[in-house]
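[Meeting: bench + compute handoff]

Bench side (C.D.) handed over the final construct sequence. Compute side (W.E.) agreed to return the predicted structure before the next meeting so the bench team could plan truncations. Sequence as handed over:
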Amino acid sequence: MSLRIDRTVEGDLVVFKLTGRIQAADIPQLLTLLKTESSWHGIVLDLEQIKLVDRDAVLFLALSEMTGAKLRNTSAYIQEWITQERSAMNRNKTQDPTGFGG
């Protein structure tokens, strides 16, 4: 099963209900949706029906959350993975704030 995206509006929030699995190939489409809806006060990614993700998807979700999107109904294993990736990003930033490695 591939990724299915349903869009709804809840007050001043745009909610994207995602169903299936999120893979690296889906990230450009998701980025386009988020950019298109950036004028809204808030964006929610509802992950209740997401059963499988790859690392690129987890990085995308972590960065989306860090830049203001809300994640809703995230399974425990996906949330834990997001937390681990966010911690790794923060560790790398602390160890080498320039990004030049050294």
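W.E. noted at the follow-up: The domain at 4-94 is CATH 3.30.750.24 (Transcription Regulator spoIIAA). C.D. will use this when planning the next construct.
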